[in-house]
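call fold(seq) -> C-alpha cells
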Amino acid sequence: MAKRLKKEELELMSYNDIAYLLLKAKQKVSTLDLFKQIVELLELSNKTLENKIGDFYTALTKDKRFVLLEDGTWDLQENYKAKKLNDDEDLEDYEEDIEDYDDEEVEKEDEMFDNDDSDDDISDITDEYKNLVIVDEDELDQE
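ret:
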C-alpha cells in the first residue's frame, strides 16, 4: 500500500503513518528494518536513518496502534485484540473464577496467621514465669 503511494503523498505523512501502512502489508518487522523501508520510500539519506531511528522507536512505543513483540519486532495492535466476553455464560464463568481465586487467597492468608500452637506456647510461658517478681534496682541495693 505504502509503495503504491507517490513520494509527495508519503512526504505529507508521519513516519508512524507510513509504518502503519507497511505493517498492514507485512507483519512483524524490527525497528531498524521498518525505518529502513521508510527511509528508502522517502529517499532519505543513511545519515537521517542514523539520526532519527531513536526518535522513531520512541514514537512507535507511544503510538497505541503498534505493539512491540517479545522477539523485538513490531506489529499492529489490531492483530492482538483481546477476546471479548459476549456470552452471559462466559461472563458468569469468569466471575466465578475470580471469586474462587479470591476465596483461595483469603484461605491462604488465614492459614498464615492462624497458628493454634501459638496460644499453647503463650500459656506454657505464662505458667513457667507466673511466680516471678519484678524487683527494682533500688530495692536490690538496699539488701
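The first strand starts at residue 29 and ends at 30.
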